[in-house]
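Worked Example 4.2. Consider the chain below.
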Amino acid sequence: MRIHYYLGWFNDHFPENLVRLLQEDITDRNSLVMISSNPLSYEYDGSTERAWLDQAGIMFDEYHLINYRVQKEDAHTLVQHASVIFLLGGDALKQNYFLKEYELSNGIKSSSAIVMGASAGAINMSAKWLCSKKFGFNVETSAVLDGIGLGDFSVLSHFDLENNFTLVQTELSALSEEMDIYASNKDCAIRIKGDKTDVLGNVYLISHSKVQKLKETL
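Applying the procedure from the previous section yields the following structure tokens:
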């Protein structure tokens, strides 16, 4: 059964209810493969995201970071044998470009590993997402970009939604006519296990230009 976690950002650590689910879901702890969101900068090493897992008591036999130091063929092999694939937070646009350049999306989609993404990583796990200057991206013209497509929906993660409802609703109106959009801020998570969707924290559903706060289930 496929399990995907779309995370916001956690300033300290995972909350207890999320830790419990992760401990139940992550039974194979052989290899954690992290995918950088800024693959040219070796400072983005996933230490924060790894610390969340460490504090949750989830340790792996092997840890791997995919960036430009890793050859494309080796990156594919790491993804193929991963127990958990973690798309790191940071720069969603650079990560999106890297996923395309290294042609990693199909391997991630076909993998039996648990796939997690924090902030930028969660955005790139979605089917499509809006790259807009108004959302803080360094672009002049807004564009809808293809993500990995683990689910037929879009994600806006780690954005100050509560103070920008009108902006978010306006910007995402067109895309929300095409597909559902899950929007969240910090300390939030969406867990999709098979056909079941669970929600932690303040997560909103934007569909056909209407915004609805989802009931917390975790």
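Helices lie at 16-25, 47-55, 72-80, 92-101, 105-110, 120-125, 165-171, 173-178. The first strand starts at residue 3 and ends at 7. Compare this with Example 4.1 before moving on.
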